[in-house]
Amino acid sequence: MWPLLKTELDYTKEGLVFTYAIAVIFFIVAAALKSWDLFGYVMNTSITYFIAMAIIGSEEDKEGRTRHLAGLPVTPQQLAMLDVLYVALFQLGMVLLWLCLLIFKPEDAKPTTLWGMLSQNGLVLGVITMFMIHHHLSFFGEKKYHLVSYGLLLALALLVAGLILSGHLKAVARFLWNSYFSATGALASTFLWLSLSYLNIMIFVRRKSYLE
Amino acid sequence: MPQAFEFKNLIKTYPDFQLGPLNLDLAPGTVLGFVGPNGSGKSTTMHCLAGLVRPDSGKIEIFGHENDLNEPAWKFDIGYVGDIHVFYESWSGEKNLQFLAQFYPNWSHVFAAKLAQRFDLPLKKKAKELSTGNRAKLAIVAALAHAPKLLILDEPTAGLDPVARAELQDVLFEMMADGERAIFYSTHVLPEISRLADELAFLQNGQIVLRTAKDDLTEKWRKITFRLSRNNLKFESVVSHQREGNDYQVISSDFEATLRQLHELGVENMQHSRLSVDEIAVQILKGEKNVAAS
Question: What is each CA distance from A28 to A36, A41, B83, in whole angstroms?
Answer without folding.
Answer: 11, 10, 49
